[in-house]
Amino acid sequence: MMGAFYLAISVGNFVGGRLSSLYGSMPLPQLFGAIAAVGLGAGLVMFALTPPIKRLMGGVN
Predict the structure, then answer these.
(1) Helix axis angle, 2-20 to 28-57, nearest 10°
(2) 8 A C-beta contact, residue 38 and residue 17
(3) pTM of whole model > 0.85?
(4) What separation in angstroms does the CA of 7 have from each of 20, 23, 33, 42, 56?
(5) Nearest in space to 35 (alpha carbons), one of 45, 22, 24, 25
(6) Average pLDDT of the segment spanning 30-52
(7) Alpha-carbon distance 44 to 42, whole Å?
């Protein structure tokens, strides 16, 4: 479980670094739109993974 925690932190820092590298080359509204799109995309992926994860849990609440 700790490995997944550190992996999530690593991926978040990587995506944040990639998006912050665009600060000088993109207009701010477009940059904030890209940040919002990444956040919404991640939320949709987590929402889509909820049923398979619940099935893997085998009735644990």
Answers:
(1) 160
(2) no
(3) no
(4) 20, 25, 25, 15, 20
(5) 22
(6) 92
(7) 5
Structure token pair of residue 25: 């080359």
Look up residue 4 and give its amino acid.
Answer: A
Tell me if 31 sits within 8 A of 21, measured CB to CB: no
Estimate to the nearest angstrom the gap between the alpha carbon of 52 and the chain centroid. Answer: 18
The pLDDT assigned to 4 comes to 92
State which amino acid sits at residue 10.
S
Tokens (6 digits) for 5: 């925690």
Domain range list for the chain: 2-57
3-state SS assignment for residue 16: helix
pLDDT at 51 over 90: yes
